[in-house]
Amino acid sequence: MKLGKRSVFFLIIAALVLLLCGVFLLRAPALLVTDAPFDALYGGNRALLKRVEASLRLFRRVKPVSVPIDTGSDIVAFAVEAAARSPYLVLFPYRYLEGARRYAEAFPETPVFVLGGRSREADTEPLGFVSTDSATDFYRAGLCAALIASDARQVAGEVLVFQGEPIPVEWSGAFLAGLREKGFEREPKYLSVTEDYSDTQNVVCVVMSGQATAFLEQNLNIPVILFSWVDPVLTSQAVTVIFDDSPWALLIKVARAMGKEGAPLPSEMVFPAERMADRKVLEQVRDKMFN
Q1: Buried b / exposed e across 48-63, counting CB within 10 Å, b at 16+?
Q2: What is the mean pLDDT of the chain?
Q3: Is the dihedral of CA 152, 155, 156, 161 positive or negative?
Q4: Is 219 left (phi over 0), alpha (psi -120 to 50) or beta?
Q5: End-to-end Cα separation, the chain, in angstroms
Q6: CA-based, 20 to 30 A from 15: which of 84, 129, 168, 266?
C-alpha cells in the first residue's frame, strides 16, 4: 500500500520521537540524594516538577535517591550504588557528607558533589564542593527590598534583617550595595531571629535569613524576603520572594558547572503567585535574577 505524503511525514516524526526517547533513556542519569523530612519540607509536587524540568533541560533522567534519615554512611553509599550503575553525577546534601565520601572512594570515576550551603568549609576531598553564593543572594535581596520600598513610596522607611547567626561583613555589604543601587539610603536594622520586634509602623520590608517565628506570628502586612527551602504554599502570604539553595534548586547549575568547579552558585529566586502587589515591581525584581 502506497503511503501518502502526510503519512510519511508522521512516520518520520514518530521515528524521530522514538529515537530521542531511546537516547534519553540510554543516557546516564543524574542522581539526587534526599530523605523524607526534606521531601515534606520542599513539597512532593514541587519536587516532581523540578525533577521533570531538570530531566528535560539536561536531556537525561534525573532520579531522586531517598535514604532513611540519620542512616549510616555505608547505607547511603549502597542506596546510591543500587540506583544506577554509572550515573552522570550524584548530588548529596551536606548532611550526607560521609556517605558521599564513601561512595566517591568506591566509584572515583563518577562525579560526586556535596552542597555545602552558606557557611560550611570546603573540606570534602575527593568530592566536588558546591557552596551558596551568599554575597550575590544578599545583593539581590537588597535590590528586591529597595524596589519594594520604592513601590510603597517609603524610601525613608525601615528595612529589617532577621539573622539566625551574625551575617558576615561581605554579605551585609552586598545587601547594602543592592539597597543603594535602587535608591534606598537608610541603614538596614539587623536583628536576631529570637527578638520580639514590635515597632513595625515604619517597616517597609523584612528579610529573613533565619526563621523569625515571633515576628511572623504577628501576621503583619509587610512584604517578607525569605531565605528558605520550604514549599511556598506553606509560607505566610506576606512572603513575596524566596531564595532557595536546595539540591533541587541547584541541580541544573551544578551539572552545567561540571569541569569548572569551585565557584559558588547563587540561589534560585522564587516568586509565590499573586503576592507581589505591583506587577511592574515583580518584573523589575525578575530582571535582577541573573539566572
Answers
A1: eebbeebbeebebbbb
A2: 84
A3: positive
A4: left
A5: 53
A6: 84
